[in-house]
Model the fold of this input.
Amino acid sequence: MHPIRKKRLTIVLFLVVGVSVAVALTTYALRQNINLFYDPSQIAAGEAPVDVRIRAGGMVEEDSVIRDPESLMVEFKVTDFSSSVLVEYTGILPDLFAEGQGVVAMGRLNGQGRFVADQVLAKHDENYMPPEVNEALEKAANKRASESGGQLETSAGY
Amino acid sequence: MWQIFHKLGSPKWFYGIASRLMPWLLWVGVALFIAGVIWGLAFAPPERLQGNSYRIIYIHVPAAFLAQSVYVMMAVAAVVTLVWRMKLADVFVKSVAPIGALLTFLALFTGAVWGKPTWGTWWVWDARLTSMLILMLLYAGAIALGRAIQDEKSSARAVAVLVLVGVVNIPIIQYSVEWWNTLHQPSTFKLTEKPKMASEMWVPLLMAILGLYMLFGWLACLRMQTEVLVREGRTRWVKELIQQGGTR
Amino acid sequence: MAFDSLEAFITMGGHGPYVWSCYFVFFALSLVLIQWSRVHRRFVLRTLARGYAEPDTAGTSRASADFARVDTSDH
Done:
């Protein structure tokens, strides 16, 4: 390669590397602000500010949704499988809201560790399945779980 | 090896190759894309949670995918412009930037319309959506800068530097959903893993992506040929080409 | 076919407006860009052909220099 081109290529590489490093450092410094929401572990650890509008996100815990029969108030637990936070919300929930589904709630954390939401967004996961396939998969998973329960004991003994 | 590389840079050679490629790109692209979209819209099964709204994926993902890979191609062309001063690389960048801008806009638009019934909001300032918006601004900046500078050589270099600096945004878009908490879900397709999607859903999606790729190639060739004609209008080969009616 | 009737296909279980507006905007804007590119190409070809047809374009005439600089700034 021609020496002048070699020199230009070096300058170009330095430019790209330099900009990448600068951007990487900036995003690293801003990482808490880039995160859209706090997860329940962060809230439990006291990382989230109290009485400031924040977002909390995670999975709606199974069997935790309590709907008030009189009003649109709902109460549910959001979990990341290590800790969970209690959320209360009054309003219409998105179609995809269900137990075992991801959500992002916007609102304030009050003094008692309850999260009072004024907006709840549903988070979709990256899996796309037709309804029948999903049912079949779940059935298979349950079957495997019950079978492996027995297997576990034998393998533990062995 | 370098000889082939320099031949690639010859506008005349490019013009001939493009003319031969274009009918194939257009018709195979149209067939694949339309087949993928119709399959996705009418024949693919509904999604277990989203129902039918997920059918937006058959244009959302191709547009978003192309928007990013067009930018990567532009960045490669920008390196060629800066290091080898190849004019055809600049022709590529200038011709393709508006296509990339449109695809980015379409990815954002279809994403917003999809987000409303699925997430419950049109827009949220999460890392994926914001970095995609930055991509659109980069495209717009490249178009505006290229037009603002009259001198062909300075314009080529300025745009190339801008495009190259902006390329850091591409890995940010790609990995935003893994590095940070976002509302947007992680990628369904990864090179190393099986797609997290039923095959009767992703086969049409793959067809739509390939088809759109080819249609992009066709439109890129068409626009590049035009740009070559404008820049090489005074050369003998262009004059002969036009007088012989070889531009149909 | 994933739908029982044409009506079910149009309404998409209540998601019809979202799905169809996406597809409409996608195709409409794409076709606008394609058409724009083709019109521009035709314009450039016509301008160039007119330039070559002028009698004094042979050699180093100003006319041929002018049409090459013609404003074709729609990309």
Remarks:
- The first helix of chain A runs from residue 3 to 29.
- The beta strands of chain A are 54-60, 66-67, 73-79, 84-90, 102-109, 114-123.
